[in-house]
Amino acid sequence: MKIALIGATGFVGKELLNEAVNRGHQVTALVRNVDKVEKRDGVTAVKADAQNAAGLAAALEGHDIVISAYNPGWNEPDIRQIHIKASQAITDATRQAGLKRLIVIGGAGSLYAEDGTQFVDGAHFPAAYKEGALGARQALDDLRKVTDLDWTFVSPPFQLEPGARTGKYRLGGEHPVFDADGKSAISAADLAVAILDEAETPRHVQARFTAAY
Fold first, then answer.
1. What confidence tier does 75 reach under pLDDT thresholds 50, 70, 90?
2. Cβ atoms 150, 125 nearer than 8 A
3. ∠46-152-47 over CA atoms, to 5°?
4. d(Cα 195, Cα 180) in Å, to the nearest integer?
5. How many domains does the chain have?
6. Which residues make beta-bridge pairs with 209?
7. For residue range 154-196, what is the model confidence (pLDDT) as tens digits?
8. CATH code of the domain in which 54 resides
9. By the 8 A CB rule, do 131 and 79 touch?
10. How far apart are the C-alpha atoms of 97 and 198, rounded to whole Å?
11. pLDDT band for position 145 (50/70/90)?
12. DSSP string, the chain
C-alpha cells in the first residue's frame, strides 16, 4: 500500500512511519522539515504545507490512503484556528487528489463521558490543551459532514505515552476505553498498530474510534 503520512516526524507520526514501513508499505512522509525524516528504505520525504490544499493535493496523488497525524504544536498560540484550517485543507486535498481513504488522528477531548458531555467541556479539562482539543473537535464535526470520502477519525486515550509495541489494544467508539484500574492509556507504538490495522482492514468508515489497553 502507498501511504501518504502527514506529520510523520511528530510523536504519533514517527510511530506510524515505523509501523507502516515494518509492514512493508511504501510511505511518503509529508513534513515541514524533510531533514527530520530518517533515511530508510520504503520512505520518501516531501516538504509540504498542511494548510495549502492545492500544493498538498499534488503531493497526495498516486497514493492509496492519507493518514494525517498533523498537529500545529501545543505552543502555537492560534492552535485552534490553525488546526481547523489545516484539517479542512487536508480533507480538500484528499478529494482533489482523487483519493477516497483518509484517516485523521485527533484528540481525546471530544470523547463522551457517561453523562453525555464531551470531556473538553468539563471544568477539569487541562487549560493547556483546551484550545487544541477544541480545534480537533471541530475537525471531527467537519468530517462528520463529509459523505464522499471514506474517512476515519482516531481519538487516542487520555494517556498517550512512550513505550514498547505489544501489538495489543482494545477498541472503543465514542467513549473512552478504561482498564480494570480505571486508566485509559496506550503507548504511541500500539496506537500506531491500531491505526495501521484500520488502514489495512477498514472497520470504522465514516466513523470515529479510540483504542487503549
1. confident
2. no
3. 10
4. 23
5. 1
6. 154
7. 999 999 999 999 999 999 999 999 999 999 999 999 999 999 9
8. 3.40.50.720
9. yes
10. 21
11. very high
12. -EEEEETTTSHHHHHHHHHHHHTT-EEEEEES-GGGSPP-TTEEEEE--TT-HHHHHHHHTT-SEEEE-----TT-TTHHHHHHHHHHHHHHHHHHTT--EEEEE--STTSBPTTS-BGGGSTTS-HHHHHHHHHHHHHHHHHTT--SSEEEEEE--SEEE--------EEESSS----TTS--EEEHHHHHHHHHHHHHS---TTEEEEEE-
Q: How far apart are the first and last CA of the chain?
A: 27
Contact (Cβ atoms closer than 8 angstroms) between residue 44 and residue 27: yes
Cell 458531555 belongs to residue: 117
Q: What is the mean pLDDT of the chain?
A: 95
The cell numbers describing 57, all together, are 493535493
Query: Within 13 Å and on the Cβ side, how many CA atoms surround 28?
Result: 18
The pLDDT of residue 73 is above 90: no
Phi-psi region of 171 (alpha: psi -120 to 50; beta: other; left: phi over 0): beta
The range of the structural domain enclosing residue 105 comes to 2-212
Beta pairing class for 43-47 and 159-161: unpaired
Cell numbers describing residue 53: 490544499
Cell numbers 500544493 correspond to 55
Overall pTM surpassing 0.90 (yes/no): yes
